[in-house]
TrEMBL record:
SUPFAM superfamilies: ParB/Sulfiredoxin. This is ParB-like N-terminal domain-containing protein. Coiled coil: none annotated. Gene3D superfamilies: Conserved hypothetical protein from pyrococcus furiosus pfu- 392566-001, ParB domain. Residues 303-314 have a biased composition (Basic and acidic residues).
Length: 324
């Protein structure tokens, strides 16, 4: 299948994508190299050397012209950030086998310095593989600004997250930020992607087997970012998660009643959610978060299996509501 080409301008350049406002610097390749390090990089370079590492190069990245260091760090001085996805043993195994075959490590991690240690927001699998192999050093692009560590996750698209992984990653980031930089929720739209993931993340923390995929479309209609700092908004997020869990309890009870009546379908949870969800019949905007979930929870608890026909469930079709 032929690849679809992007529309171009009169000059022949691809048109900018919707929502993209970035205008790259005019720096040429020769201008990216730094013959003299700026003060913020110089202090960081001395810290790297004091920590047992080595500075291999100083340069500017080509889009924004931000100064960076290319460094070699002791592997025992580097940790994964606590808010990224859990390490996959299968992924690490593939990496170690590839490294064993090629006898090379060619993909630097990104790191930020924190105290006398280094945190990587996107290199957990590579770091783990190197540590398993017994490597003493890891190559890293060292970023001076700590806040960039949270933004790096938006660039890491090598493996698509499932909903549970992404939501848990978001809530770990949320808690970490709430205890450090503490920005407003609305300022973290890029890093969090959508407010529904924040609420789902807190819900998954409390109930790992939650069928979040059944509730995500509803949350996307009614959830929104708070105009408050994360530390102040955190209790509200935990409360919203409890509202979702109360609804999940009501849905599970309705599913159990249907099964007692002889209904046996992998779509029962999706059927119940669709049955009690009023949004599909509403015109205009959705009701407030609490009002909607209160209505749906009440309907789920009051669902009478005697009024449900087998063809109603069969028509619901679609994918079963799994626990991501």
């Amino acid at each position: 299948m032929a690849q679809k080409k992007r529309p171009v301008t009169k000059s022949g350049r691809p048109r900018a994508r919707k929502g993209v406002k970035l205008k790259p610097t005019e720096l040429t390749p020769q201008q990216l190299a730094l013959s003299e390090r700026p003060p913020e990089l110089d202090a960081l370079a001395h810290a790297v050397e004091a920590d047992g590492g080595a500075v291999l190069a100083a340069y500017r990245e080509p889009l924004g012209g931000h100064p960076l260091l290319f460094v070699a760090l002791p592997t025992d001085k580097v940790d994964r950030t606590p808010f990224q996805r859990d390490v996959s043993d299968a992924h690490v195994r593939k990496l170690t086998l590839a490294m064993d075959k090629t006898k090379r490590y060619l993909d630097p991690i990104v790191a930020v310095r924190e105290g006398d240690r280094y945190m990587t927001p996107n290199g957990g699998h590579r770091l783990t593989a190197l540590q398993e192999l017994g490597a003493k050093s890891v190559l890293a692009l060292l970023v001076p600004e700590r806040e960039v560590a949270y933004q790096i996750l938006a660039l890491n698209i090598e493996k698509a997250h499932n909903l549970r992984e992404k939501a848990l990653e978001v809530v770990r980031m949320y808690r970490d930020l709430a205890g450090s930089l503490d920005p407003k929720e609305s300022e973290m739209a890029l890093e969090f992607e959508e407010p529904a993931l924040v609420t789902l993340g807190f819900a998954y923390e409390a109930r790992p087997r939650l069928s979040g995929g059944a509730y995500a479309p509803i949350l996307r209609k009614v959830d929104a970012y708070e105009e408050r700092k994360l530390s102040a908004a955190l209790p509200e997020r935990e409360r919203r998660a409890q509202v979702v869990l109360a609804f999940d309890d009501a849905v599970s009870e309705a599913v159990a009643r249907l099964k007692e009546k002889g209904f046996d379908s992998p779509y029962l949870k999706a059927f119940v959610v669709a049955r009690v969800n009023p949004l599909r019949f509403m015109k205009g905007g959705a009701p407030p978060f609490d009002e909607l979930f209160a209505t749906m929870t009440k309907r789920a608890r009051g669902m009478d299996p005697g009024k449900i026909r087998s063809e109603d469930v069969a028509r619901s079709g679609g994918a079963a509501a799994e626990a991501e």
